[in-house]
Amino acid sequence: MSGEQQNRMQRGLKNRHIQMIALGGAIGTGLFYGSAETIKLAGPAITLSYLVGGLIIFFIMRMLGEMSVDEPVSGSFSYYAYKYWGDFPGFLSGWNYWFSYIIVSMAELTAVGIYINYWWPNIPHWVSALFFLVIITIANLVKVKLYGEFEFWFTIVKVAAILGMIILGIVLLISPYHATTTGISNLWKYGGFFPNGIRGLLFSLSVVLFSFGGIELIGITAGEADNPKKTIPKAINQVMWRILIFYVGALTVIMMLYPWNQVGLEGSPFVTIFSKIGIPSAATILNIVVLIAALSVYNSGVYSNGRMLYSLALQGNAPKIFAKLNRNGIPVTGVLTSSAFTLVAVILNYLFPGKVFIYLISVATIAAIINWMMIILTNLKFHQAKGKEAKKQTFKTPFYPYSNYISLAFLIMTVGIMFTMKDMRLAVYILPVWILILWIGYKVKKHL
């Protein structure tokens, strides 16, 4: 990839955009609606699950950040895998990332239909999905700065909702009129901190990891950040405290307010807390927030997929038409093609209303794990290629190479855990089939 080709993309993402994109990547619908399910698996120990999972994700993000700061390009780890490992790893990384975000985008569009039905139950899911697909796609075709603005304000709403919940929860905890079931003793009172044992903790890890899916988008923005050597390290280093505040903090407050085995029995924990302080429109407020969270993830999906196809085209791993940019530096063909594939979600919601979401989520989880494994292995290759120069990097992977091996072992263990879970097993079966499809696609490309 030549410098001339790379520089055609405009560096229109400011520091505040990068920070909010990074922050938004750690906050999704999994926290707002999925928290009750993870608490059922691990009880109060879910906070430990997020700490352990968050630490692994932090290591992986530092590995990606090390390469992104050294060479800030669009296409991120696909480009690095191609350069430092080989043709097929680059091919696999890029196309798997593109596929994973297509699946995630389909899932989020499906969720959008569910949220819209809260206000207008007669609107079919496919109509809502199609409407927002068109709006978000148009926004991504104008300027990269517009994408950054969308994501900036989307994330502001999500952050405000979580911080509001935490603050209001603390107010309830210290209030002299709080319920008798409220208190810090809830963290160990009902069956202990590990009510379902280590098994429950381990089972929760796969769901926890899904919550972090998409956080690697920080690396994708490197090619269009106005000062990547400053903004990328800052964004990545803040990942850990975000996880502490927005996941561990929020869930700890929720479980101190209510016994863990009652969380989610009356709907979302967030709705329950807002209702408890006398806000009658709690469900409406939450629905607005989760709708924005879903649109935020879809907005990021459209952005990242267009850039990944652009990078694959420059590598020769995708048709050259995807390497063309408009006058604003937008890979229009890549964006439109990705949206066209995401349109399948609209069709699926039309054909199978109400049955699509769970299948998409399981496949998206395994695709995210492949992405993270490729980042870990590519970082090892990066260090081998750089040799002694790697020690001079301004933004290093902490505890290299031990953090690489520990993170890789953790992800392999998670895949094994997923195989023992009924709802996740299908995705594990799909894993070797998907890699075989990519291998065949690579071989066909080589012979063309």
UniProtKB/TrEMBL annotation:
The chain crosses the membrane at residues 20-36, 42-61, 98-120, 126-144, 156-177, 197-218, 239-258, 278-298, 330-351, 357-378, 399-420, 426-442. Pfam families: AA_permease. It is found in: Cell membrane. Residues 17-446 form the Amino acid permease/ SLC12A domain. It is a multi-pass membrane protein. GO terms for biological process: amino acid transport; transmembrane transport. Keywords: Amino-acid transport, Cell membrane, Membrane, Transmembrane, Transmembrane helix, Transport. GO terms for cellular component: plasma membrane. PANTHER family: AROMATIC AMINO ACID TRANSPORT PROTEIN AROP (PTHR43495:SF4), GABA PERMEASE (PTHR43495). Belongs to the amino acid-polyamine-organocation (APC) superfamily. Amino acid transporter (AAT) (TC 2.A.3.1) family. This is Amino acid/polyamine/organocation transporter (APC superfamily).
